[in-house]
Amino acid sequence: MEKKELRNILMLLSSPRKKSNSTSLAKKIAEGAASQGAAIESVYLHQMSIGPCQACYACQKPDSKGCAIDDDMQSLYPKLLKADSWVIATPVYWFNMSAQTKLFMDRCFAFPAYGKNPFYRKRIAVAMSYGDADPFVSGCINALRCFQDSFRYVGAKIVGMVYGSANEAGEIASNEEVMKAAEELGRKLGKL
Fold first, then answer.
1. Within a domain: 27
2. Would residue 5 count as lying in a domain?
3. Residue 133 is part of a domain; what is its CATH number?
4. Which domain holds residue 29?
5. Less packed terminus of the chain by CB within 10 Å, N or C?
6. What local confidence, expressed as pLDDT, does residue 128 receive?
7. 37, 192 in Cβ contact below 8 A?
8. Number of H helices, E strands in the chain
9. What's the whole-model pTM score?
């Protein structure tokens, strides 16, 4: 009997609140992916020590061994490489992604030092929550554009995005439409 290969999905959760709205969306994505047999691993970026890129360009040299900064990003690079898909979950703070997400995104500058074309064929899903009911007024659109432009540039594919308005921790769970969309996105990610 042939062994079925599982999709590996890495959940990158950036809210400082573990029961946050963006995390609730990501968990619903994980449920959908798991229903398709995907293996899920979650990482809380807020609990990691990830510093900003120092623009030293050590990661860009032909003989580079990777990022020169010795912090928790070093343990994340192999997980990013192994995963078939990433789910990036972020609240919108001050008209864009959270600082924790932005630090992670900036440090992906070094990711090519860890494998040949490491972004190629990565499947990305984005889950976001924001305060204002309007995604334009809240700044959600700015974050969406950042993700679209960044991943298009490096050759990764955004499979889908789910986002909705909520303020109190866990409030988004009452939005049946967005939670259903998150679960469906997870099913899409989980399929081979």
1. yes
2. no
3. 3.40.50.360
4. 11-190
5. N
6. 97
7. no
8. 6, 6
9. 0.94
